[in-house]
Structure formats: C-alpha cells, structure tokens
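Convert to structure. Protein one:
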Amino acid sequence: MRAGLGLAAAAAVAAWAGITCKSDPFRQRLVTSELRVIACTPGCPLPPLDSIGIATAHRGDTVVVFLEVRNGLFDSVEVVLRAPCAENAALLSGTSVVRQIPSPVTCPDSTVRRYVEPVLGNTEKRFIRFVVDSGIVAAAYVLEGRIALNPRIVPQLLFTVQ
C-alpha cells in the first residue's frame, strides 16, 4: 500500500509538470525530470530569454531542448548525467532514433556524477540548441530526454516537425 501511494504521488507530480515519465517501478523516489522545447532564433542566448514550451517546429527552425532533473526527497540523490556534448535527447519515430541531440555526438562515453539536493532551485539542467534540419520528414515524433541514467527517468513529449 505504501509503495502504491509513493507511485501515485510521483505520477501526480509528473502529470502536474506536464511531462510523461517512464520510470523504473522498483525505485520509489520522488525525483523528476522535465523536458521542454523552447523557440529560439539562430543566435539566441543559452538559456533563452523566453522559456515557454512549444510542441511544433518547422524544418530550418532553431529550437532549444531543455532538460532538468529535480529532487523532491528529504536527502540528496546521486544522478549520472550525460555530459553536455553527449546525446542528451533523441527524436524518435517509433523506436528508431531519427536524430541525436546534440548532433553530432562528440563525447558519447562521457558521464558526469552529481548530487541533486532537495533544495528549491538546486537542479541539474541542460540547454541544447538544435536546428531542425531539412532531412527530417514532416511528421509527429516523440522527443525523449536522456539526461538521467540513474535513477532511470525518461521524460518524453510529442513533437511535430512541419
């Protein structure tokens, strides 16, 4: 019963944040990961000034993929993150990876260990500029965040390329 309440609380937090998380059901932790796409111009600053999420972009647009890991527990949580130059997100069609973000991946084996404290504002973040190239077929895709490797949290959102 207690584990069920923890899982229900985690699901409620995920629903409130507007994200979809596939989590390891054996880890009853209140650690969340957010994934958002933000409109950007080719030279926009990182992080961009506007943080309103979008769900559609045109081929040729520049967007920023934003990932964040938060800790809602009473103690710190160790997470293993991919380095900013490694694959932090993937554009998927079904189970096939259409694009890795960032692309090209320059340090695929690089990871960074961090302790995320349960303090307001103490999070791990990634802002990755992504140009939606013309080689991507106009369609609906799943964008998957791959920032947190341990605990296993995989935020996803529907993202349409026009």
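Protein two, convert as well:
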Amino acid sequence: MSYWPACVALCALLTLPAGAEDAGAEDAGAETDRKVESATFSMYCYWTGEATLGRVDGVLSSRIGHWGGKEIVQVDYDPQVTGVAELTEALKLQRSFYSVIVGAEVEREQAARQLEPREIAVHRGEPHFIEPKHSLRTRHPELLKLDLSESQAIALNSWSYFGGEMPDVLAPEQKRTLKDR
C-alpha cells in the first residue's frame, strides 16, 4: 500500500515574478535585465525537496520551512535557465510534487501556462522558514564552517543528501582551510 495518494493534497506556492528580489537590480552598474523568480513547493519532506531542487540548473537560492502545516521549499531561480515546469518535473521524479498554490488569480493564469489546471490552487498567507541545508548541516558541518556562498551550499547540500562524487565547488582557499582542519 502506497501513502502517496494521501499526499495529493500537499501543494506548492508559485510567486511570479519576483524580479524585485534581485539584489543586483538596485546597483546602476548591475545586470538590470536579469530576473529572478520564486516558487514555493510543499511536499512530504522538505529535506528531499531542497536537495532535489538544488540539482536543477538555474536554482539560485533555497529556503525550507512550514506553511499551514505543510513542509515547504522555496527557491529563487533564473527563468532564463529553468522554470516552474522543470522544477515541478524534478520534484515529480522524486514523488515530491502535487500542485502549485499561487497568491492571486492573476498568478493562477500565469501558472496555467506551464502546468495542468488541476495542479494549481490559490492560497493566502505567509510561510515560516527555518534553517536550510539540513543534509549539509547534519552530515558535513565542517563544510559549513567555510563560509559558503549560496550556490556552493546548494550544490553541497544536494551532494550530501544524494551521495556520489563531491562537486568541485570550493575555492582554493576553502580547500586549504578544510585540509588544515
């Protein structure tokens, strides 16, 4: 007996667009045409979700938490590299996606261009975030002491969850520091 059908009610929040969150947009010399969008997914386990989404090219940051009793993962991503459909597909492959919840009807229409209508619902409220990168924190705390960038932490968190060869994302100084410990 599978418990997956019982999880169908779990949802995801999609925020389109979140370009205002692009920190570089404030600087006159920064890339002002780069957009960042956000999507928040609810699933049975945010540790699996964060590690899964961290493997998708274009994911720039991730956060985990709770929303309405559900475990969530929120990601900021570069829409020129990936999109909601690709993020959703990655989660579906891990059996970690069921639907998207958007904050307004206009966002529902935007999401409907990429997903099936039955995968979309409107939800109001705010998530509560907790400390992210669980697999990295619990399995490799020595790496977190290296003052990692968000992209390094995402890659290393996914590696620590799924295993395999450690990604070569550390700077030479970080490698030296790690070796000296």
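Residues 1-30 have pLDDT under 50 and may be disordered. The CA atoms of residues 47 and 60 lie 17 Å apart.
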